[in-house]
Design brief:
Number of strands: 0
Main location: membrane
Helix content: 55-70%
Membrane topology: Multi-pass membrane protein
Strand content: under 5%
Shape: globular
Order of helices and strands: HHHHHHHHHHHHHHHH
Keywords: Ion channel, Ion transport, Membrane, Potassium, Potassium channel, Potassium transport, Transmembrane, Transmembrane helix, Transport
Subcellular location: Endomembrane system
Largest sheet: none
Number of domains: 2
GO molecular function: identical protein binding; potassium channel activity
Distance between the termini: 68 Å
Low-confidence stretches: 284-291, 303-318, 328-340, 360-384
Number of helices: 16
Structural class: mainly alpha
């Protein structure tokens, strides 16, 4: 009984809200109508490039990800991770709406992507990456990628409204946002999955530290749905042109200024100050593989041990552990700093004795201030 009353009240509130929004949109639409032709002219300029060429430039832009060098040695991983970055958002949105992804219905998608991926990663002298570094080509490719991304957001928002109904608010916004952001999220998760032992960093950098990619996808999806369905002040083609223009302006500002040009930064900063929700602390993600990072940390630890001196009890544990591994029972009685020696100790002492004999010194003339040679401790032996 209570649930039925609550559902009825919710539907009544949504109906009132839709009515208010519709009236407001119709009133604002009369003021925006004189500018429809100008926006359609801009949309015609965006449509001068063929769709397949826009797709190819979008793929070229997606394959030039700075993190591609971490999995370049594994061509299959590199191919699919880059494909997730290029076409993952639209494909994920289609699957959520129970539609077939574009790669299944268009035979040109995968070959075009394969050519762009090869030119960027494995062509002689990486000709694709070299071309992308040329400013005019990079600018055109990024503009084409923004056009492709904006159109994907609008198309998937239309699909969500068609599937879920025009009265839904949250679902279409989420589907449109996934279409514009899903590729980035899938790339982060896939790269972490395949090269987790190579790259140090959070599971998904975009999920942990939301950037312009997140906020722009949500804002563009909301803007398109607001101006087209909830407050119908603009036709679909004009509203789509408005969304494309927002992303293209950000690309132009970024390329001309040489910075990220995050247009959402002031709004996000105000949101954190007003709401009291702390902004995530951005920490530097190391670009070196984890193996190199651990090796550098081990070298620093070794230098500290050299300065502080090697504990003979730890040396005895190390030697005893290796002796047990070889099955030599006699070495167990050697004690903490006794006669049991591991291979590293024996080889270092032998070299020092030979050097002392060549210099005319006694082989057992070790002075008290001379430290015992170090040995490499197994991972299972804890420091004392």
């Amino acid at each position: 009984m209570g649930a039925g009353i609550l559902d009825g009240a919710m539907e009544l509130c949504k109906a009132k809200l839709r009515e208010r929004l519709n009236d407001t949109g119709m009133a604002l639409g009369t003021y925006a109508q004189p500018y429809h032709d100008e926006f359609r002219l801009i949309g015609t300029a965006y449509g001068m490039l063929p769709a397949k060429l826009i797709m190819a430039m979008h793929f070229l832009c997606a394959c030039n990800n700075p993190d591609r060098k971490h999995f370049k040695a594994y061509y299959a991983v590199s191919f699919w991770v880059s494909f997730f970055a290029a076409a993952g958002g639209g494909s994920l949105a289609n699957m959520l709406m129970q539609e077939q992804p574009a790669v299944f219905v268009d035979d040109a998608v995968l070959p075009i992507f394969a050519i762009c991926w090869f030119l960027v990663n494995y062509a002689p002298k990486e000709i694709g990456a070299v071309m992308f570094d040329f400013f005019p080509i990079r600018l055109i490719c990024r503009i084409a990628s923004s056009i492709n991304r904006a159109r994907s957001i609008c198309d998937k928002a239309d699909l969500a409204v068609e599937k879920l109904g025009p009265g839904m608010f949250v679902g279409p916004v989420l589907v449109g946002s996934i279409a514009g952001l899903g590729g980035k999220l899938l790339f982060d998760f896939a790269s972490r999955l395949f090269v987790s032992k190579k790259v140090a960093g959070p599971v998904s950098r975009e999920l942990v530290y939301p950037s312009w990619a997140t906020w722009s996808a949500c804002a563009c999806s909301f803007t398109y749905l607001l101006t087209t369905y909830w407050m119908p002040m603009l036709p679909k083609d004009v509203s789509c042109t408005l969304v494309v223009t927002i992303l293209v302006c950000q690309v132009l500002a970024s390329e001309l200024s040489g910075g990220p040009a995050d247009l959402s930064a002031p709004i996000v900063s105000c949101f954190h100050k007003i709401s009291g929700i702390p902004a995530p602390e951005v920490c530097a993600v190391p670009s070196k593989p984890v193996k190199e990072v651990k090796k550098a940390a081990g070298n620093r630890e070794g230098e500290e041990e050299d300065a502080a001196g090697w504990d003979p009890r730890a040396r005895g544990l190390c030697c005893a552990f290796e002796a047990r591994q070889r099955g030599e029972e006699s070495s167990r009685e050697s004690g903490g700093g006794g006669g049991g020696r591991c291979r590293s100790h024996r080889s270092s002492e032998k070299e020092k004795e030979e050097g002392a004999e060549e210099g005319g010194l006694a082989s057992n003339s070790r002075q008290p201030w001379q430290r015992q040679p170090r040995c490499q401790r197994p991972a299972s032996v804890q420091r004392i």
